[in-house]
Write a structure and sequence with these properties.
The structure is a single chain. By secondary structure, the protein is an all-alpha fold. The protein has a domain of 242 residues. Pfam families: Fungal_trans_2, Zn_clus. InterPro entries: Fun_TF, Osmoadaptation_assoc, Zn2-C6_fun-type_DNA-bd_sf, Zn2Cys6_DnaBD.
Length: 554
């Protein structure tokens, strides 16, 4: 018919003469380039001239030459009827199209908006359809799973320093990606805690959808910057710590993605918004631990990031409107002002470890280490050790930390007659991390001793290692226990005798039943104390290639 455009793509794709995927309410090209999709309504275009009728013989000749499709195989150009019904499971996922509201915050298009223009999307889009459990309001589902979790686990140890159990909850129901990530994590935790294999299976199934949706969000020119995308990325890393879908090192691949995403967003994005601040504060220990185990410097030690890290807890704790206000959720209020100074010092550890590992590797190979490198190691280790000792002294004077209490051990297989109990498990986790830092720094100073001279901290290191393992029983209890003791435990195990190492690995295997990152089989070697197995390096590379989607930030 004269005046009816033949192209079925959106007006912008037709104007630009590019192929349109015809996804509604906005096509993929418009989403990709951040343009407002004009839609698929075609205005009639009237042209002057007479309609030419082709002869029947001419059409039959074209059909013989393959220029005209048979009638039964031609594509219908009739529009979709508003009254037609479409299976909602095949509708486009609500996070496939994104928009910005008036305030500039990231929101996903509401599900009911897509029902106004039902159309079956392409196969690659249908694979990312929102799971049934998340199509309606996901808030009751998430809160119901949390209620189940807190019936078998203590709530106090979960909410401390963990925005995925506190401030993230106020963002549930806004973005399907974050809803799915939080639901998959809670299903994993509840399933493991209750021995419910069906919940664990459902968590893995939902997690695969989350990874695919996360890749789409990271490739979006606007959505990758949103706090919800960062929160989902962090939750995926936490999920891998507990689940280890590929192996126990997969969390390091996700931590690499978090590093890139945080740095791409820049320090300014974590200086004002309380939700962004709580996210960086919660993931800060993971960022530093990943840098330590991977053997590279931590970006949080750079000046512009150090200024942000120095006041994360201050900005977060002074917000009375925040759902994560410490007076509501944290037992030891006095400890808060001393957390930022500790993590500022803790972020310097990866650089010292990297230098110390280089010196140790040359010494083990019988090579004379570079004198300038040894001097640098001695200077940095001594300076950082002095700063840590001063920090701990100030904190104890203000009652931020109390001396642990000795009590008889209830484990007949333990090599220790007594264990150390802190007044709070999270308080104990910071003290254990502080002891682990001292262990490494003092070992660096031992390595810098002159040949033939006695090592000044050899006895002190053995005592620190034993104290870490004695405190592991209490601090490592609960479902977040392995998260608290993972780093100090890996450091301490290299300073004890063989019998104690065997007992420690037995404890590690018990932790790995619900916390995969603690597996003794693929647990990464400490960059300073021991050589990393080549198989461990290969497994990290395999995990990077197979498990985590590429984090290309366009």
């Amino acid at each position: 018919m004269v005046g009816v455009p033949r192209s079925k793509g959106c007006s912008l794709c037709v104007k630009r003469r590019i192929k349109c995927d015809q996804v509604r309410p906005a096509c993929g090209n418009c989403i990709k380039y951040g343009a407002e999709c004009p839609g698929y309504d075609k205005n009639r275009k009237f042209v002057s001239g007479k309609h030419t009728i082709r002869g029947r013989g001419n059409q039959e000749q074209q059909h013989k030459q393959g220029l005209v499709m048979p009638p039964d195989t031609q594509t219908s150009t009739s529009p979709v009827s508003p009254d037609s019904t479409t299976d909602t499971s095949q509708l486009e996922a609500r996070n496939d199209s994104f928009s910005l509201d008036a305030s500039g915050s990231f929101v996903a298009l509401a599900y009911h908006q897509q029902q106004q223009q039902p159309q079956q999307p392409p196969a690659h889009i249908r694979k990312l359809a929102v799971p049934v459990a998340l199509r309606d309001d996901p808030v009751p589902l998430v809160y119901g799973l949390m209620e189940q979790l807190f019936t078998v686990q203590k709530r106090d140890e979960a909410v401390y320093n963990a925005p995925w159990f506190t401030s993230i909850l106020s963002h549930i129901g806004r973005v399907s990606l974050l809803d799915g990530a939080m639901t998959s994590l809670l299903l994993q935790l509840v399933g493991k805690a209750k021995g419910d294999s069906m919940k664990v299976y459902r968590s893995r199934e939902l997690y695969s959808w989350v990874l695919a949706s996360l890749q789409k969000a990271l490739n979006h020119p606007v959505v990758w910057k949103s706090a919800e995308t960062l929160a989902a990325t962090i939750i995926c890393c936490i999920f891998e710590l507990f689940a280890g879908t590929n192996n126990a090192l997969t969390w390091m691949v996700h931590a690499t993605g978090i590093n890139r995403l945080v740095q791409q967003r820049g320090p300014a994005s974590f200086s004002a918004n309380s939700f962004d601040i709580s996210l960086l504060r919660g993931v800060r220990p993971i960022i530093i631990s990943k840098a330590i185990f991977a053997g590279h410097d931590c970006f949080l030690d750079r000046p512009k990031w150090r200024r942000i890290s120095e006041q994360l807890t201050l900005n977060w704790g002074d917000n009375p409107a925040s759902v994560t206000h410490p007076k509501k959720d944290i037992v030891q209020w006095a400890m808060l002002p001393h957390q930022d100074p500790f993590y500022v010092l803790h972020a310097k550890m990866p650089r010292v470890i990297r230098i110390g590992y280089s010196v140790r590797r040359e010494m083990k190979r019988g090579i004379e280490p570079n004198a300038e490198q040894v001097d640098e190691l001695r200077s940095k280790a001594a300076q950082l050790r002095t700063s840590l000792l001063a920090w701990f002294t100030r904190a104890k004077q203000m009652d931020a930390f109390a001396d642990p209490v000795e009590s008889p051990s209830s484990d007949p297989t333990s090599p220790f007659a007594t264990v150390l109990d802190f007044r709070d498990q999270w308080e104990g986790s910071i003290v254990l991390a502080y002891w682990a830092d001292l262990l490494i720094l003092q070992e660096c100073l031992n390595q810098c001793a002159e040949p033939g001279a006695s090592k000044p901290f050899e006895k002190a290191n053995r005592q620190l290692a034993n104290d870490i393992l004695r405190a592991m029983v209490q601090v490592g209890a609960g479902f977040m226990g392995p998260y608290r003791v993972g780093y100090p435990l890996r450091v301490a195990i290299d300073f004890v005798d063989e019998h104690t190492q065997h007992w420690t690995l037995t404890m590690v295997d018990k932790y790995s039943e619900h916390y995969a990152a603690m597996s003794s089989k693929v647990y990464p070697s400490n960059p300073l104390i021991g050589e990393t197995d080549a198989k461990d390096e290969e497994s990290i590379a395999d995990a990077a290639a197979e498990v985590m989607p590429s984090l290309s930030l366009q």
